[in-house]
Fold this sequence. Notes:
The structure holds 2 protein chains of 2 kinds. Helix content of chain A is 28%, strand content 42%. Chain A has 4 helices and 9 strands, in the order βαββαββαββαββ. Chain B has a 6-stranded parallel sheet, with helices on both faces. The termini of chain B are far apart.
Amino acid sequence: MSENSERRVISVIVVNEASVLSRITDLFSGRGYNITSLTVAPIPDSKYSRLTIVTSGSVRVIEQITKQLHKLIPVLRVYEHADMVEKEMALIKFPITESLSDINTLCEAYNGKIVNVGDNVIIAMVTDEPNRVENFLKAIKRYSPKEIVRSGAVALER
Amino acid sequence: MQISGAQMVIEALIAEGVDTVFGYPGGAIMNVYDEIYKQDGFKHILNRHEQASIHAAEGYSKASGKVGVAMITSGPGFTNAVTGLADAYMDSIPMVVISGQVPMSLIGTDAFQEIDAVGISRSCTKHNYLVTDAKDLARVLKEAFYIASTGRPGPVHVDIPKDVTAQIAEFNYDIEIELETYKPNVKGNPRQIKKAMEAISVAKRPLFYLGGGIINANAAYEVRDLVHTTGIPAVETFMARGVLSYDDELLIGMLGMHGSYSSNMAMSETDLVIALGARFDDRVTGKLSEFAKNAGVIHVDIDPASISKLVNADYPIVGDVKNVVNEMLTHCDKLNSSRYEPWRETVNNFAELHPLTFHEDTERLKPQWVIKRVGELLGDDANISTDVGQHQMWTGQFYPFSRPRQFISSGGLGTMGFGFPAALGVKAASPEKTSINFTGDGSILMNCQELMTAVEKKLPVINIILNNNFLGMVRQWQTLFYDKRHSETDLSVQPDFVKLAEAFGGIGYRVHTKEEFDIALKDAVEKNVVAFIEVIVHRMENVMPMVPSGGSLFNMMLLEKKGTK
């Protein structure tokens, strides 16, 4: 599996019905494929949902993943993205004692802002490419983040 | 019409042309069994264990080509059936398995005999359904039969809660199937087929690699046509036995771990593999990096995921093998069969160098002799099932199969206990043929309760127990690879198989000699009741040749020359 393992983003269009998500995740665990992240939401005005799966594997493994996904009965389409726009969101909670303006400036550099200021905490949001979100999370370490939530990636073919 | 969910099940099965259902009743499926009691559209065969019901339905399906149907209850009824589902999934057998479930109101409460059946069957079925409303039943059952029997076939599991089988709703089975997400590609790409045929025409040493998909696709006679027209030699997988007749001059033999020397050498020397409905299983290929190392690969399969999964295909053709082979036949006029004459000679030389054979023994019968002998006496008149182990491989090697669907065995999953119930299903599907089950002293005990089914339903299966007092195949590996430490494989403590058969109302024979065997087999065929023929065979006989697990096909352990022991 480890031979030339590459990160890949796959979108799967599925019929929005009971247990369809477990069909997908069972396939990954049963065949020993990785899931780095997975997002799912209904496609507006249709009976379908769209999953975005970030995975990794050799070319052969990725080919098998797409073929095996396609074999599942409720799967309509599988896209293995090459040229895409990919975004991920992160929410971060900081103590109120940290510098509001520093955090806000940093967030703006990563396509985000402060979205909530409470009595004890600040909540900030960024939306960017997953590797940029990664960088952002490194950069904010010094502001003692209390909690971090990442959404997992979503992608659209260009 | 307004009917109950249970009645819908009956109506759907009859509409699908089902004539035999295998099963076992229980609490959650009782409404359906109540309707089975009232109908006479199909026959119900009561097995004595749910696993056997599934295997029987598999045997029925494999012998008849129809969708096998089994019915079971919730909880333990279902979990007992799981091995059968997994077996059918691995061997791509079209099946519809209907299970009862606890009422909807109790699902998730750890109710009596509740288990998340669709959660369990998801990974061992082609598809599954939990029906939550009787108005969906017609659609679900129609889809189930359609999905099971099209594309790469497989088992479909339908789980129906008890209150849904009691619910009254509108039923109309005369509906169109609308499955936007499931459209198997049955016609191969014509350009790709043409390219493949061009590759064949310039190859020097092409080789047909025939798989069980040919039998599933009912394409054996088309494949025979293609093999004969091209004059290209062929090897068969274990699952493809009977695609070509045993006496076909172009059939080299079975390949793989226990394939013949000539088949494995042909595969190692070929310059173009023409894989038809085969999936490059590890038991066939041995070490992948050495498999058909210098060959191009044409791979025809209905399942795109089987293509380039293990061995890269230079000419991938997704489609129904029957359609593709028919299309290939239209391109044969440019081929010159004499081109492959030197190659055919090479292959024949391999066969002469190390023919598939065995050494007779003066003290005890050899299991291979028994299998060959049944072939001589019954040949085409018998359908052959097997259990799993040494006897299974010897059957694959030595029985003279002459037609598709003659041989029924658990190939992918390797399920001990498969043979006897499967043979019952075979007999139910094909009563005019003798149904033989070759089995071992290990395997037969894993579903011997089916003696009762066989007696009750008058399904006179003849079980030939090749008794070596060992769990033979595991013993063989222990002898060869574990320094003869025969851990827990000595089965010397045994029931009296003759009395066991008799206790159920069957007939038993114990034979030691060739003469006794002939008499017993003849008698069993005439008596027409379920039989155990226990044959005392050589204890330490090994299945040879053998490619050790993970080794290359051309590195075979061969039968020792006579007198060297």
